[in-house]
Amino acid sequence: MAARLVYFFGAGKAEGDARDKQLLGGKGAGLMQMTSIGLPVPPGFVVSTDCCDQYFKRNKRWPKGLDAQVREALKKLERLAGKRLGQPDEPLLVSVRSGAAVSMPGMMETILNLGLNDKSVEGLASNTNNRRFALDAYRRLIAMYAGTAMRVPRERFDSAMAEVKVKRT
User: Fold this and answer.
1) Is residue 136 part of a domain?
2) Would residue 59 count as lying in a domain?
3) Into how many domains does the chain fold?
4) Which alpha helices (H) appear in 37-112, and where do they start and end?
5) What is the CA radius of gyration of the chain?
């Protein structure tokens, strides 16, 4: 059996608490603790720091069992939210945040609006009755993903956005 790498929180239950900072990072441990004491926290899950350690020890290969554990946690999240990741008509949007045991403001990467795609952005536009908001959320996802995961310089997106703004004025 694979080692435990993913810890869930939601609906008033958490698989960790504030004492688990080394394992879950400061933000993850804090979310677990807030969930445990009944504060309103959107459900989610944390991939442990052990997973990160194993990733680097395995020459940048994910540890065995990670994929299955993330899929299981995502299914729980979808059940609680009543939405599915990438669902065209009512998409579940999630954020992916990196964390550490110690606070490092501005140093950790984030990707917001994961779950949007060419079809689900239309569902978000319809549900919010705000196409501009939906398209802006999608644009932000693309820029954050490109910068964080693909190391595309942010300036490429900023300059393209500036060009569009000039054309509209």
Assistant:
1) yes
2) yes
3) 1
4) 49-57, 66-81
5) 18
Q: The domain that contains 127 carries what CATH number?
A: 3.30.1490.20
SS3 content of the chain, % helix, strand, coil (to 5): 50, 15, 35
What domain range includes position 154? 6-168
Is 69 part of any domain? yes
For tokens 């990733």, name the residue: 55
Residues with Cβ within 8 Å of 159's Cβ and at least 6 positions away in sequence, in order, are none
Q: Which tens digit of pLDDT belongs to each residue from 26-38?
A: 999 999 999 999 9
Q: Distance between CA atoms of 2 and 123, rounded to whole angstroms?
A: 37
Which pLDDT tens digit goes with each residue over 112-121? 999 999 999 9
Structure tokens at 138: 């999608």
Cα–Cα nearest to 44, from 18, 80, 86: 80
**What's the whole-number mean pLDDT along residues 47-61?**
95
* pLDDT 10s digits, 80-102: 999 999 999 999 999 999 887 78
Q: Is 50 exposed, middle or buried (0-12, 13-18, 19+ CB in 10 A)?
A: middle
Q: What is the mean pLDDT of residues 62-89?
A: 96
In a domain, 138, yes or no: yes
